[in-house]
Amino acid sequence: MTPPPFQSLLDSHAATVYRFLLAQVGPGDADDCWQETFLAALRAYPSVRDDNLRSWILTIAHNKAMDAHRGRRRRPTPVAELPDVPGRETAEPAGTGVWQLVRGLPEKQRASVVLRYANDLPYAEIGRIAGTSEAAARQNVRQGLQRLRREMTDE
Fold first, then answer.
1. Cα–Cα distance, 82 to 36 (Å, whole number)
2. What are the pLDDT digits (tens) for 76-90?
3. Helix (H) or strand (E) holding 145
4. How far is CA 135 from CA 32, 57, 108, 109, in A?
């Protein structure tokens, strides 16, 4: 298979990838992850052997989103004022929007829910992107939705 020019891949999938990343990592990191996704894709594009370029590019985006989540744990959290006594404060819950709650799901559930409902992908493709089976993708979506329902009714 000879892939089409990279610009046509970018034109076809830029919005899909951005929508996925926005739901996965939030507006603060979505732009950076989007750029990193397409830079990585550009580097790997000459050797791509995948027939389904949408799955291929979303797999790269999924990996970049996971990297962003892992990196977020290592970055310091900015605060307005430093407390007089060092210690852990209880943070107030972040926004109560649905996508804010989705970003709080475990990685596999978050990715599966976003790929299913923001990108309208079938379960087989979700499993392929997330590196799981179709059945595991269904399970992750189901568990993610159950958790979202619980969190939304508790509020």
1. 33
2. 777 777 666 655 444
3. helix 134-154
4. 32, 22, 13, 13
